[in-house]
Amino acid sequence: MLCLYGALFPLALSAICFGWYNWYLKGHHKTDFNVGGTILLAVGIIVGAIGFITTGIAYVSQVDDFEDVKKFQKVESIYQAKAKTLTAEFVKYLAQVYPEHEKNMYDNISPEKVDLYFVKYPEIRSSETLTTLVAQINKLQSDIYDQQIAVEQALKNTRSRLRNPWLLAFMLPTE
To answer: For the chain, does the N or the C end have fewer beta carbons within 10 angstroms?
Structure first.
């Protein structure tokens, strides 16, 4: 909005200069108010054009960030689905290797709690398959958190653009 005010001020001054110029001409006095008015008019137009160009660039960035948020959320859901699939595989291996353990414990396994079973049952650490699965699940959980951070960063960028005093916020999408 500041660029809009920065453009309106010289435009108003140029209108005053042109008014003085016309008023002085009626009295047949020689004056240079037309030169000042022209210069102020040019400055106002340039500042306004810069404001619109800057806002146009911010508009494109704003739309891009909204699309990134959608992409990050979809990638996050894919990672969550993959983590659940790998957890189910972990449960399957655990059920085959340790059938003597409690039957209901397999229903409560979630991707966040897989490491707890290594602590609870240290003998399963020797299984390379289970160790690899747990490493993959942990990496996916880390990727999910990274996606959540990326979503928050993109949303922060959009909020800060909407509050930027140098941009014409009414032109920016708020989706």
So the answer is: C
The tokens 């040019």 sit on which residue?
A: 42
Distance of CA 108 to CAs 91, 100, 111, 151, 156, Å?
Answer: 10, 17, 10, 29, 36
In sign, the C-alpha dihedral spanning 147, 152, 153, 158 is positive
Contacts of 161 (CB under 8 A, 6+ apart): 58, 61, 62, 167, 169, 172
Mean pLDDT to the nearest integer, 142-167 = 85
Q: Which DSSP letter does residue 121 get?
A: -
pTM: 0.56
Rounded to an integer, what distance in angstroms lies between the CA atom of residue 63 and that of residue 61? Answer: 5
Which phi-psi region, left, alpha or beta, contains residue 164 (left: φ > 0; alpha: ψ -120 to 50)?
A: beta
Tokens of 47: 């500042």
Mean pLDDT (whole number) for 87-114: 67
